[in-house]
Amino acid sequence: MEVRQKRPGNKQRVVVVAMDDSKLSEESYTWYLNHLGREDDRVILIHCPEDGAILQSPIIFSGSNTADGITDDDRTHFRALMHMAKEKAKPHGIVDKVRSLSGNPAEMVIQAAKEENAAMIVVGSSGIGALRRTLLGCVSDYVLHHSPVPVILCRHKDPQHH
Which DSSP helix (H) or strand (E) runs through 76? Predict the structure, then answer.
C-alpha cells in the first residue's frame, strides 16, 4: 500500500466517492485509496439510503441532528460505513467526511460534487447490460453523463458478480 505525499503548492483536492452497502462500493473506495489517494485529499463519501432517510454523523459530518423516522437498520448500516471508511483512510492520512443524503442517489452524488467543489468523483460500476441499464437506470451511468468533473468508474473484481 503506497501513500502518496502532498504535492507542494497544491491546494487540498476534494474527491467525492459514491457509497452504498455493496461490496462494489467498498472495492471502489479501496481502489481510490490505493491508486489515486493523496495524504492531503479531502474525501467526501456520499451515502443515499434506499428508503430516503437522512443521516448525518456529528463525528465525521457536522450538521443538523439525525432525522426522525430512521430505522435501527439504517443506523447500523451507516455506522458500519463510517467505521469502514475511517479504518481504510487512516493509514493513508486522508481526511474523510460522510454525508448521507435523501433523494435519487445519482442526482445526490452530482449535487454533492458541486456543493463540495470536488475535483473528481469515484463510483462503482456493476457492468449491467444496456437493456437492464435502460430499464432500471444506473447510478454510475448517470454520474458519468452528468458530472461537471472527471469520473473514475471502478469495475467489480469478480466478472461473475452480475
Answer: helix 72-89
